[in-house]
Design a protein that fits this description.
Length: 153
């Protein structure tokens, strides 16, 4: 009998000094400039750049030296300037993708950016361990995004 494992999503937020529209652009169009490619990638030190294709069905992927590509995810909802939904699968051997939602909400003179990563249940008995790998990664990565967004304000 198969067990169903429910694992809480990762949620993290930042507030940036630019508009929600500008924050959306920094997150998507300028993704390769702020993403920590040598820390969070498949190729690590061989990874050359991260690419975010800004449309529904677009890929999020890395280019590895020599011209190879490794897909991390796909855009399943493209809703500028307020919402992105992604299928996320940075491990090609994982049993299936998880889901990431990013929302951009005007707040004062800036914007609040909320990220939720859910769907860990696809990993079955390994769901908790799979989630744990992202516990520190998303908050630190979202801070790098916030620094880039603040610089773009």
């Amino acid at each position: 009998m198969e067990r169903s494992t429910t694992v809480a999503p990762i949620t993290t937020s930042v507030t940036v000094s630019c508009s929600a529209e500008r924050a959306f652009e920094v997150f998507t169009k300028e993704f390769g400039a702020w993403w920590p490619i040598h820390v969070y990638s498949i190729g690590r030190e061989r990874a050359e750049k991260a690419v975010f294709e800004g449309w529904e069905g677009g890929r999020i992927y890395e280019v590895i030296e020599g011209g190879g590509e490794a897909t991390w995810g796909r855009v399943i909802r493209w809703g500028p300037p307020s919402r992105l939904e992604l299928e996320w699968q940075t491990n090609p051997e994982a049993p299936g993708p998880t889901h990431v939602t990013v929302t951009f909400t005007p707040e004062g003179t800036g914007a609040r950016v909320d990220l939720e990563h859910r769907g860990w249940e696809v990993y079955g008995d390994q769901a908790t361990a799979a989630r744990r790998e992202y516990d520190e990664g998303w908050p630190s990565t979202l801070r790098l995004f916030a620094d880039a967004a603040d610089a773009a304000a």
